[in-house]
Queue: 2 jobs
Job 1
Amino acid sequence: VMRDLAAQVELLAASDRTTVLLLGESGSGKGRVAELIHSHSPRRTNAFVEVNCAALTPDALEVALFGQDAAGGDNGHEPHVGLFEVAAGGSLFLDEIGELSTHLQARLLRVFEGKGFRRVGGTREISADVRIIAATNRDLVNEVNEGRFREDLYYRLNVMPLYLPPLRARSREDLV
């Protein structure tokens, strides 16, 4: 199983625009696999940026991902650059994507549709040349059926799903 997974990771790394959805229990190595995909891809010389979608409030995550324009324009505040801009030309790893609010799901879908994004409070459209690697331990099909996850976003993410088996299902050689 792990040799097959390694072969899939190698193929995905070569295809630097394919969105990857990593599925598996907590602790199964989804973050490490995301790093491997990036580090073996043509995007490896650019940033690998990771964000845990469950670790921030929806408002804080929105600012973290998309940035924020200077409030009021002339009050001395600098704009905040978001992780989509930081990861330009590289990869953005969205860990625990199943935790996204419906509002953020809609904003992310807009990026997938090639329409770019706007910083929070901004009006200028910014393009995003970023490979998205997402991970979840949730059953997204069930989340879609229950109305907690957008079906259209699920299909955008599910281009190339990779299931990582739990550690208890791996052989000793896999764990070394």
Job 2
Amino acid sequence: MTGPEQNRPQQTLLVALAHPDDEVGMVAAMRAQVERGDRVVLLWLTRGEMTEALGPIPTEEIVRRRTEHGRIAGEILGVETRFLDFPDTAVHATPEAAARVARVIAEVQPDGVLTWGYAWRRGLRHPDHQATGKIVRDAITLARIKRCVEPLAPHRKPVPVFTYRDRHSRMPSVAIDAAPY
């Protein structure tokens, strides 16, 4: 790395999603951060055990395969991967869910977060996606509160949230040139 990028401190991006495979639309953003020399942590709240995409196989086998797919995706992208154990198709934005993710935020100490935003199109409007986005946004606030994340230290730095939205969003659009990746 040369120029102004070489003197900048490493930053951490937390990408928090509902299911393994949700990252497909965000791989260019993750890879761009990795190429800048940043740390990227990809967190899935579920293991995607309700999918039918792998055929009629037992749930335990789906969990094993999707966990392995997530690990491989992380290797390809050069990012750290983590899973929580929320139930697929039953992710709910509760205070307890936000507290669990707040502890991850306190541990990871991200400089920015990429997660689901509000959307209405098929796929984007999946209830798990909508709940995950709310959980993550709530967790950023809870991660600032010492008693919510003890024994970890609270994460009180500003954490901008970037969300994956559909074309109907009135929020400003940001595009990442995926051609190099």
